Amino acid sequence: MGRPAEVGAPRLAQRLLAWYDRHRRELPWRDSQDAYRVWVSEVMLQQTQVATVLSYYAPFLARFPDVAALAAASEDEVLGAWSGLGFYRRARNLHRGARFVVQTLEGQLPRTLEGWLALPGVGRYTAGAVSSIACGVRAPILDGNVGRVLSRLRGWREHPSESAAARRLWAEAEALLPQERVGDFNQALMELGATVCRPRQPTCERCPWRDACAARAAGDPHAFPAPRAAKAPPRVLRVALLLERPDGRWLMTRRPSDGLLASMWELPSRDAGGDDPARVAQRLARAWGTRRKLCPAGTAEHRFSHLEWHTRTFRVAVPADWSPAQEARWVREQDLTTLGVPTASRKALEAARAPEASSAQ
Ligand code: SF4
Description:
The chain has a 4-stranded mixed beta sheet, with helices on both faces. Strands 3-2-7 form a 3-stranded antiparallel beta sheet. By secondary structure, the chain is an alpha+beta fold. Helix 2 packs across helix 3 and helix 2 packs antiparallel against helix 8. It has 2 domains: 215 residues, Hypothetical protein, domain 2 (Endonuclease III, domain 1), CATH 1.10.340.30; 118 residues, Alpha-Beta Complex (Nucleoside Triphosphate Pyrophosphohydrolase). The chain has 14 helices and 7 strands. Iron/sulfur cluster (SF4) binds next to helix 9 and helix 12.
């Protein structure tokens, strides 16, 4: 326990950049000045671990190598390439932004912070990250990693999600910006948060800011910022039907165009509320135009950031000439790579194909 050393912003930036030059991880989006590639990487990295993004980044760019290719793609193609990454609103916003660039900006990506902020779906974080990294604009960034590092450096306990705390952190992120290498500085801040100043057990002895850090001086760096009160997410019971034809195709339908997993594909499904899932499944099957026998199959669990789905699945064998009463598509295995099928839907599909239990009726 002691007092942190007083170190000015230029010296802090210099130390952080020197640390970054020595210790940064080699990642495929680093060192790229191509604003489109930086944009894609920054959108993918929001709320997703680097290790996960690594398996999506190159295939996505191979499929949509530039902003024109992304703008020309259908939403289904974009969501298909994003399937499994989660937070699909990000993919939709990226797609909308690409179309805006092609239709309104003659295909030229912005070079200023204001230009990036004008794109639909681009917020302050993404605009700051892309404009600083790709265009050298002196713009700050604030994400979860940066918020934690700066809260600890300054000894601020308020959680960054509080609006007053966020305002103070944005101002601090701006005050620390160096005159040069702004993009590297922003990436270095994120890197420090991801690899050294981690949520639990920060390795302060490896930190270039250790002598200046108020949280370290207080003796309990992991206690900064204070954790948000955790609430258990609500659990929603659902049923899903695997309506199968003799040729092995099954029925999938699009979700509504707004709300959770908007416009993405899933098995015919509905929330069960407090009802018996088998009875809800029978009503759902009738709504789809069949009274054939339902066979209970597996159960899928999926956790979103704000709620959990617990999905009971049922198989229904339908004849080759049967037509559903609602709009849907007959799907084969190979179609799953080109449709936007989120992880929650894939889990339900896998559960429905699990070995059958006993008959429901
Ligand atoms: S000294 Fe420790 S707590 Fe402070 S910024 Fe560095 S890693 Fe984080």
